[in-house]
Specification:
Helix 2 (44-56) links the parallel strand 1 (30-35) and strand 2 (60-66). Helix 4 (144-161) crosses helix 5 and helix 4 packs antiparallel against helix 10. With 390 residues, the chain is of the alpha/beta class. The chain is 41% helix and 21% strand. Strands 1, 2, 3, 4, 6, 7, 8, 9, 10, 11, 12 and 13 form a 12-stranded mixed beta sheet that branches. The chain has a 4-stranded antiparallel beta sheet with strand order 5-15-16-14, covered by helices on one side.
Length: 390
């Protein structure tokens, strides 16, 4: 009986401590996971980043995932201990997200499905302004122009989740940028609430050059994922020689149609300042209702003709329904095949489907991957090599 009473007192004490912490912080705390293993930097960078983020934001509780470090945890930090294995850490993070133990997470690696991409955020040096890079990891569509148009919608949603009521938007001057600008302009004419930014160059316009991204001429810079990823790395590490990302907010939280998880990405070279900012960015995205903002932005864009514009951006051979093979029965995917061009990803998956191998296209931090069961790995590699995709 004494032991039961002691357990009750412990539970009551923990509940009261949580109530006190909530009252002091001004609202419920957001539990954000931090994948704290696999970096090229010491674990102390994670601990310092977590401590900094929680000191700035009393409503944030960081929960580390990975082998528990020997060093003392920062005050208020929780920990989910796992073996020193990326797969185990990722599984623990997924379980905690699915159960609601974590509201969001910051990870070094996450194989987002095709259609999901992250909204990076950089510190622009010329004017000292933050700017969203839409996007910097994952991929919102296999075809560049379609991906950039979707990125514009998702970037605006991310800016609104961050509290920017009427964000300005520009499109980086890459291949397909003029097509994307025309599509956005037609949508704006049909009532899509879109505010184009202006280049800092004399001729102005919302087609952005290098000068504009250095100056942070817009709130949201639209680009393709691989370009955004390079820009995020350059902005984060241009002053350190490349081995330590010292500025910015990382590669940002995940967005996508029907996607309800807020998983942000940092790199294996991200230092404590970037880790701290990434945790803060994630907490703000959660409080701003990022998945709901994405859904609302998609509804508004669709009402202004988004689907027709996406169809029009497809190469003629890809427009409309194709001869998609039947998908084999779904099986757990515990292996990845790298080295496939993003434009070939969907076709590569279909090559495997035709042979009865279940596979999924996804985007990892280093580029496109085909996810599949380990039992099919060697056969799948042979098929993709024969088809010219590897």
């Amino acid at each position: 009986m004494a032991e039961v009473n002691e357990n009750k007192r412990a539970l009551i004490g923990a509940a009261l401590a949580e109530l006190v912490a909530t009252a002091r912080s001004g609202g419920p705390r957001n539990r954000v996971g931090l994948m704290a293993a696999g970096s090229e930097l010491p674990v102390e960078e994670f601990l310092l980043g977590a401590a900094t983020a929680m000191r700035r934001d009393s409503r944030l509780q960081v929960v580390g995932l990975g082998p528990r470090p020997e060093a003392a945890l920062p005050e208020g930090m929780d920990w989910i201990e796992t073996p020193d294995c990326e797969a185990d850490i990722a599984a623990a993070m997924e379980k905690a997200l699915d159960s609601g133990d974590l509201e969001g997470a910051v990870a070094l690696h996450y194989p987002f499905p095709v259609g999901v991409t992250t909204m990076g955020r950089v510190f622009t040096p010329a004017r000292g302004k933050p700017m969203i890079l839409a996007s910097s990891t994952g991929i919102s569509a296999p075809q560049r122009a379609c991906a950039m148009l979707r990125n514009a919608v998702y970037g605006l949603a991310a800016a609104k989740a961050m509290g920017i009521a009427e964000p300005t938007l520009g499109v980086l001057n890459l291949d397909a940028a003029p097509q994307v600008m025309r599509a956005l302009s037609r949508m704006a004419e049909k009532g899509y609430a879109l505010r184009f930014g202006q280049s800092v160059r004399k001729d102005g316009g919302a087609l952005l050059r290098g000068n504009d991204i250095l100056a942070g001429a817009v709130d949201v810079c639209v680009c393709d994922t691989l370009t955004g990823n390079v820009l995020a790395k350059v902005f984060a590490a241009f002053g350190t020689g490349g081995g330590y990302e010292a500025t910015g907010w990382g590669y940002g939280p995940s967005t996508g149609e029907g996607w309800n998880k807020v998983v942000s990405i940092i790199s294996r070279a991200s230092g404590a300042p970037v880790i701290a900012n990434a945790l803060s960015y994630t907490a703000q995205a959660l409080r701003g209702g990022l998945p709901a903002k994405v859904a609302a932005e998609l509804r508004a864009a669709r009402a202004a003709g988004l689907d027709a514009e996406l169809e029009g951006l497809l190469p003629k051979a890809e427009a409309g329904a194709g001869d998609t093979p039947a998908m084999p029965p779904v099986v757990p995917t515990d292996e990845e095949i790298h080295g496939i061009d993003v434009l070939d990803l969907e076709n590569a998956v279909h090559v495997l489907w035709k042979e009865g191998i279940y596979a999924e296209g996804a985007m990892g931090c280093t580029g496109p991957v085909v996810k599949l069961a380990s039992s099919s790995l060697e056969k799948a590699k042979g098929l993709l090599q024969s088809a010219g995709y590897l």
